[in-house]
Amino acid sequence: MTDLDPIQWLSAFAALAEDNAELLTELDAAIGDADHGSNIHRGTAAVVAALTETAPGGPAETLKQAGMVLIRTIGGASGPLYGTFFLRFAAAVDSDSLDAATFAKAFRAGVDGIVARGKPETGDKTMYDALAPAVQAFDERLGEGADFAESLDAALRAAEAGRDATILMPARKGRASYLGERSVGHQDPGATSATLLVRAAREVLR
Ligand code: ADP
Ligand code: MG
């Protein structure tokens, strides 16, 4: 049974954030304040730096530390949301390895944490529109007997579809909501970075 290495996951997320920082900032320039790329890049780079400075602990400890660093360093609306995701994710990890069943439980807990924090609903044009379908697809595929990688594949496809669907949504949360209907036609930056988070997990599990 394959496990997801949290350090590899966080490192892959940081690498994707770096590669996509310009895109994320362009998306945020259209409907926000043009800082999402630099926010996510700065935050994930700080996580990688913190992980290399401290002695490696178990997955729960690593992911909790990541959450705290993200809250400190991302800023904006997305900092507390990503930070809460990882803190709640970590709190739900009760084993020494991130196997598929543990990931399923923790992924759901993390996304529930985003809901508790930001009160996003489906269709509000936020990161939740990528993450909620991803959690659901992961659980469904795992429940059907798929392995970890196949379930992450389904989660990634669902996140991508959810991200793409934000283009047609008027924003109802965060800065983009000030634009109302004028936000229609633009892909949500947070849904885009959230899809990178799922993609990172998929890439390191290969
Ligand atoms: P800021 O809007 O403060 O500049 P960022 O640009 O880093 O912060 O992040 C913007 C992203 O945060 C949005 O694209 C959206 O996906 C997400 N977001 C904003 N508010 C909420 C919320 N209440 N719930 C969930 N996600 C949110
Ligand atoms: Mg912004």
TrEMBL record:
It holds the Pfam family Dak2. GO terms for molecular function: glycerone kinase activity. SMART domains: Dak2. Residues 4-203 form the DhaL domain. Keywords: Kinase, Transferase. GO terms for biological process: glycerol catabolic process. It comes from the Bacteria. Gene3D superfamilies: 1.25.40.340. GO terms for cellular component: cytosol. NCBIfam families: dha_L_ycgS. This is Dihydroxyacetone kinase subunit L. It comes from Nocardia donostiensis.
